[in-house]
Write a structure and sequence with these properties.
elongated
C-alpha cells in the first residue's frame, strides 16, 4: 500500500497516467480532428456542385469473364469448366 506522505512529496505519483492511455487519448483526438476536416471537405464539395465521394462507398469495377453470367446453372458451369480442361 502506498504511503500517503509519499504523495505529498511526489505530486507526479498522484497524476501518473499510463503511456497507453495517453496514446489512446491522442489517437482519439487526432481521429476526431480528421473526421471534422473530412466532413467539412465533403460539405464544400456538395455545395460546389462537384460529385462528393460518399464515405464507405466505392465504385466497384464490373468483372468481365465467362463466370459473369449469374443465370448459369451449376451443372452448366461444371460442364464449361470440364470442357476448358479443368479438373472437377
Amino acid at each position: 500500500m502506498a504511503d500517503p506522505s509519499e504523495k505529498k512529496h511526489n505530486p507526479a505519483a498522484v497524476k501518473a497516467i499510463p503511456q497507453h492511455e495517453v496514446d489512446a487519448r491522442l489517437l482519439r483526438e487526432k481521429v476526431a480532428r480528421l473526421k471534422e476536416l473530412r466532413l467539412a471537405h465533403e460539405a464544400t464539395n456538395v455545395h460546389a456542385g462537384s460529385p462528393a465521394v460518399v464515405s464507405g462507398q466505392k465504385k466497384l469495377k464490373k468483372r468481365t469473364g465467362k463466370s459473369a453470367d449469374k443465370n448459369q446453372s451449376l451443372s452448366d458451369w461444371l460442364t464449361t469448366q470440364q470442357n476448358e480442361g479443368r479438373r472437377g
